[in-house]
Amino acid sequence: MSHPTTTDRIRIFDTSLRDGEQSPGFTMSASQKIAFAHALAELGVDVIEAGFPNSSPADFGAVQAIAREVRGASIAALARCHPGDIEACARALDGAAAPRIHAFISTSPLHRKHKLNMSREQVIEHASMGVTLARNRVDDVEFSAEDAFRTEREFLVEVFDAAVAAGARTLNVPDTVGYATPAEIRALFEYLRANVKGADGVVFSAHCHNDLGLAVANSLAAIEGGARQVECTINGIGERAGNAALEELVMAMKVRPGYFNADTGIDTTRLLETSRLLSRITGIQVQRNKAIVGLNAFAHESGIHQHGMLKHRDTYEIMRPQDVGWPDSQIVLGRHSGRAAVADRLRQLGYVLEDEQLDQVIAAAKALTQTQHIIHDADLQRLVEGERYGPGWRISAMHLSDADDATHARVDLSAPDGRHVVQSAEGDGPIEALFAALSHATGVGFVLESYEVHSMGVGADARGEANLSGRIDGETMSGQGTSRDVLEASAIAWLDVANRVLRMRQAQPRVEAA
Ligand SMILES: CC(=O)SCCNC(=O)CCNC(=O)[C@H](O)C(C)(C)COP(=O)(O)OP(=O)(O)OC[C@H]1O[C@@H](n2cnc3c(N)ncnc32)[C@H](O)[C@@H]1OP(=O)(O)O
Ligand SMILES: CC(C)C(=O)C(=O)O
């Protein structure tokens, strides 16, 4: 086994903008691609695969702009072993500081017969032609044998020999349909490194798909077998079930010292913001339990884990959240939380309770989880303080209607002093209009940082739960609301934050400047 040493650099080849964009729902505009390419360069990837220039004028334009603007990483473009594709790559990459043409052709018997209708000899001729044409235009040429994993091993060696002879510097071995297992991938890389002519002068690369959920494991196994470049995408986006997730691969190499301890050159503290940028661009969020960048990746809800975390965080965390860009771990109070975590959170809120009162607050907090997922600070404060700070703003009625290009919201609130306040506002959509009307009515304004709606329960019992957080006076405050109507749940969550703001101001009166 060839474990990488610290001098054995693993190159990170990001293909979010090419393979990632090739999947339904992930299309990006040229300006979004340019912004994301800048973010990838700042993250520290070695290669940015910017697109497939011959596939459309839009893709050509995006690759061209990235090649001209983005520095700090090689810029690659994909081409079939086809003169028109190679020529388009060369033209689009003109202006790049470090251009790479990535030429590919399928090699497996299935693809040769049904897709290409080519003999083995024709595939080798095309591979050789594609790499030669590319080398006539740029120095850095990568060759991929599409569906390499399902290709006869001896034939794969012949194709790679031809690609090396034509001038390829990187040989990419895709598991195009995500069929391999880690042991098989490692054995394949060991075989190729032992048999391809000139193997020592080229970089072997892995490109693993996630159809069986093995893309990251297979990429790590490829590194064990001698791969020194891994192709991956942020959030694991890509064809079908996606590609290996960059953030997972990089952290696996970082977290397992003495094993995958190769320096990838990635600034891991940027992983979360890069993941979030991609989600904002595509409008597609990662699942909560996604490794590294999912909302639950460093969140602990169950009492036994929370108790362990409070004693020593290594009991339940294998990496520091700050190392990947999170501000900290989160102890989230919910149905599974225990005494240690509730008492700790209350202490942070400034309450040290007698055992009996603590028992009562825990029982009441757990009762809340019949209708909400999370016990918020505001809930604990209410449970401890009762109505000491007054009842706060409550929603009495709301009405939304569409008018011309805008949505109109009218809210009727009962104020903490018992008055009824009616206010209206317009916005670009119901949420913007609703939140603007609430802000006019209460006189509270904050910058919305996050807003999510989930459903709880099914059928006749189904309820919407809205969670949002807002930033005001340098603090982030969260609010939560549940209702059968998601817009009403959202309004309740917004008022939950507003009431917290007012309670905070009551508790800590502002010192006016003299
Ligand atoms: C595993 C991967 O991710 S491969 C990359 C996938 N990416 C894309 O497909 C990018 C988007 N694609 C496109 O815009 C279009 O498919 C284009 C512009 C590339 C080609 O469009 P068309 O000319 O209309 O061809 P179409 O898509 O129907 O079929 C693909 C053709 O390429 C041929 N082909 C496929 N791969 C290769 C290759 N690596 N080298 C040479 N020819 C190839 C096929 O045999 C087929 O040829 P045929 O038309 O003579 O039968
Ligand atoms: C073109 C190659 C690298 C590819 O995307 C695949 O085989 O999945």
In short:
It is built from 17 helices and 18 strands. The chain is an alpha/beta fold.
Please identify the top-level CATH class of the largest domain: Alpha Beta
Please give the radius of gyration in angstroms: 28 Å
CATH topology of the largest domain: TIM Barrel
Structural class: alpha/beta
Which strand order do you get reading across the main beta sheet? 1-2-3-4-5-6-7-8
Which superfamily, in CATH terms, is the homologous superfamily of the largest domain? Answer: Aldolase class I
Compute the separation of the termini in Å. 72 Å
Share of β-strand residues: 15-25%
Overall pLDDT metric: 92
Overall shape: it is elongated
Q: In this structure, how is the largest beta sheet organized?
A: 8 strands, parallel, barrel
- Helix share bin: 40-55%
Task: Write the CATH architecture name of the largest domain.
Answer: Alpha-Beta Barrel
How many strand segments?
18
Ligands present: acetyl coenzyme *A, 3-methyl-2-oxobutanoic acid
- Total helical segments: 17
Count structural domains.
3
| Low-pLDDT regions | 509-514
Characterization of the model:
The chain is built from 17 helices and 18 strands. The chain is an alpha/beta fold and 514 residues long. The chain has 3 domains: 11-282, TIM Barrel; 299-385, no CATH class; 394-507, Double Stranded RNA Binding Domain (2-Layer Sandwich). The protein has an 8-stranded parallel β-barrel, surrounded by 7 helices. α3 links the parallel β2 and β3 (74-80). α2 (30-43) runs antiparallel to α11 (271-282), α3 (57-69) runs parallel beside α4 (83-93) and α9 (215-224) crosses α10. The structure holds acetyl coenzyme *A and 3-methyl-2-oxobutanoic acid. 3-methyl-2-oxobutanoic acid binds next to β5 and β6. The site of acetyl coenzyme *A (ACO) has 17 residues, from β4 and α5.
